[in-house]
Design brief:
By secondary structure, this protein is of the alpha/beta class. The chain contains 13 helices and six strands. It has a six-stranded mixed β-sheet, sandwiched between helices.
Length: 305
């Protein structure tokens, strides 16, 4: 079995499709798959599989029957931006878009929390990446429930029933998208507190990275345990076969990127798409069109400067 096949087989251990027994603490952020790959090996393999992703994306775009929604979640400095850059570089930008969900503004707060999410979902043939997502509304607001005061909500908030209602709404939206032909993949970039500390220090120590640093990174770091609990509950409540969570060991950036691109490749392969044929009324005349173009050779004058 070649390296790519062994790697793709190893991805199963990161997939969560039934949250009833999920424990975030059982997933090691330092895992590298035990495949004997070095960082250099990983970078080489990433370059190789990018060409496969390009082919699969072209088939997705050409067939216009399915779409792909990629959700990236993780603590600050987990590598969301870098993952998008390194995994999706080289694919046709015409078929891919990225949506970053910041704190909702006044207009967004006057709608339900899933309103802006559904509006950004991919159309047929496209790949959409959510850099943060609907899960912010069961993560950040769970850790900071005071944010709910501006959300124009009725009834009791920040109760077990309130959060269960939001989890149910998210499951129903993802199930709906799946039934419309959208492949939903949710990635949690799992880093350790120590790895985050190193990455935040790098943002301060390396002048070219200082623009990435925000004082909020340190403030939110103080709530690490609370966020871990919120992620534990969110993943356990919403992991389903139609919208699996992939717990990506992300202390090694090169390996995290491989896990993400490998998961995307497997999901697109499972669609079993082939190059579509032209519509019958066009296909019938293709040979005639070709003959016409061949006969034109040398007949159309070249514009003179």
């Amino acid at each position: 079995m070649n390296t790519l096949s062994r790697f793709l087989d190893a991805l199963d251990s990161y997939h969560v499709t039934d949250g009833s027994k999920f424990k975030l603490s059982a997933h090691n952020p330092n895992d590298d798959g035990n495949l004997g790959l070095t960082k250099a090996d990983g970078k080489l393999l990433l370059r190789k599989v990018k060409s496969l992703l390009q082919i699969l994306q072209e088939l997705l775009y050409a067939n216009q029957t399915h779409s792909l929604l990629i959700i990236l979640q993780g603590m600050d400095a987990a590598g969301k931006d870098g993952t998008i850059k390194h995994v999706m570089s080289g694919v046709n930008p015409q078929g891919v878009s990225v949506t970053s969900f910041k704190q909702p503004g006044p207009t967004e707060l006057q709608h339900g929390f899933l309103w802006r999410i559904h509006a950004a979902a991919p159309q047929a043939g496209r790949i959409v990446i959510f850099n943060r997502s609907q899960y912010e509304d069961v993560l950040v607001t769970r850790v900071h429930p005071e944010l709910l005061q501006n959300a124009h909500l009725t009834g009791d908030v920040n109760t077990p029933e309130f959060w269960q209602g939001r989890f149910s709404d998210i499951r129903h939206l993802e199930h709906y998208l799946s039934r419309q032909g959208t492949v939903v993949l949710k990635f949690f970039l799992n880093i350790s507190p120590e790895e985050q500390r190193k990455r935040l220090l790098a943002r301060l120590d390396i002048p070219e990275k200082r623009w990435k640093f925000s004082p909020s990174d340190l403030r939110e770091r103080e709530f690490w345990k609370e966020y871990a609990t919120a992620y534990q509950d969110a993943i356990a409540e919403t992991a389903r076969p139609y919208a699996p969570w992939i717990i990506v060991p992300s202390n090694h950036k090169w390996y995290a990127r491989l896990v993400v691109i490998g998961t995307i490749i497997r999901a697109l392969r499972n669609l079993h798409q082939v190059t579509p044929k032209p519509v019958p009324e066009v296909e019938h005349f293709l040979d005639e069109y070709r003959a016409h173009l061949l006969a034109e050779k040398g007949q159309i004058p070249t514009p003179q400067n």
